[in-house]
Design brief:
21% strand, eight-stranded parallel sheet, binds N-(aminocarbonyl)-beta-alanine, binds zinc ion, seven-stranded mixed sheet, 19 strands, 13 helices, TIM Barrel
Amino acid sequence: MAEFDLVVRGGTVVTGSDAVRADIGIRGGRITALAESLSGPATLDAGGLYVLPGGVDTHCHIEQLRAGGDADEETWESGSRACLAGGTTSVISFSNQFKGSGLLAPLAEYHRRAQRAMVDYGFHQIITDPTDAVVWQEIPQIVEQGVRSLKVFLTYDPLHLDDRQYLRVLAAARRSGAFVTVHCENYEAIRWRTEALLADGRTAPKYHAWSRPRMIEREATHRAIALAEMVDQPIQVFHVSCAEVAAEIAQAQERGLKVWGETCTQYFVLTAADQDRPGFEGARFMCSPSPRDAADHAGMWDMVRRNVIDVVSSDHSGWCYEGARGKRMNGADASFRDIPNGVPGLTARLPILFSEGVASGRIDITQFVRLVATTPARLFGLAPRKGSIAIGADADLVLWDATKKTRLNNAMMQHAIDYTPYDAMEVTGWPVATLRRGEVVMRDGHVQAEPGSGQFLPRGPYDLAKPRGVLPDGFDASAFA
Ligand code: URP
Ligand code: ZN
Ligand code: ZN
């Protein structure tokens, strides 16, 4: 029997710490050898290319259920195709709770739908209604089943939690050994400003940004961190949009708190001006927090270089632009308050970050790998199986052409969404092949994976999600409330 099922030969292998010339031997879907020279009956030539770990996107909304019972346009099949086309092999998507219902039935439905996946996947559980049954019975149950992270929203009707509810979720997470991710914007402040903007007739998409300026994101981030510190629960702040917000995270980290910051592709390239395009066009760029401006892009790169922001996700959202179920669902002249939030970005994540980061000289290739693969895998309990190139890890690999120039268009995204906010953007660097557990699942843009070949990634206990053991007065309120 041959030693390897496949050898990836001649590439420069990049991990979160090094870039070295090496061949990779793969057997049974795992990396079993890394050496200067390997041979086997089947080889894949990576000469002149980087070999990166498969991307790990720990914040993307795929086939998310909507209030009416149907789901987003992006199915597990189309979403997986988009991921593999862009070099992402593992995702953590969401199971959402509808207020007044429990967690278990929706989660079972998400598992059923994800059986069509072609990427490996896990779920964050969104908590919108932390009843006694949810916090004392259901959260421990789903965590035991491998859904080891919770997502809470401090804004959005009808998702947002007030501070007491947020504390109850933090406490439940602490008891169960789960990680918590937080959408930080101040609900009441957005409501108040929105009412004023609408009263003044300011309804166009661009006023979405006016309804939620930087300080309401900063305030909610500060509060989310302070309350997590009180409960002694590790958190990640999702989709940080600017340095002023990241500074709150930096301060928390300097004080030794277990607080991490994530941002998304859009906060390096989109701006508030995009939401000011003629007519309704600005809706294509509408996500929360709102994209800021070019100075904020520079500020975010600083925070990335300082490792304050150490994960870049897509926050891919499954809303089309056209159609009765898309951004225009409330009419072509709907006010900004009634336009669904979120932008698609599964495929564009690695190419845009590489282009803006590595090709533009802002970060090196190892940091790029940390941002898109190694750190998200570690933070969410997927390491060492995912996120790196190491003996024993899954052979999830991307062969990357660092010099290829590509002008982005929606067809390249291979998603089910009818637009990309990155249309016509030119990027340097592109994935030419993707391997998932040793199988070549994308080559030159052609995705060739079987629906259902993705595997659920149950996540067990891991150190990063453990509390520090530091509580005010030494009193553990989370044991009681
Ligand atoms: O606007 C956004 N980000 N929509 C997706 C849901 C979320 O807030 O993460
Ligand atoms: Zn969010
Ligand atoms: Zn999101």
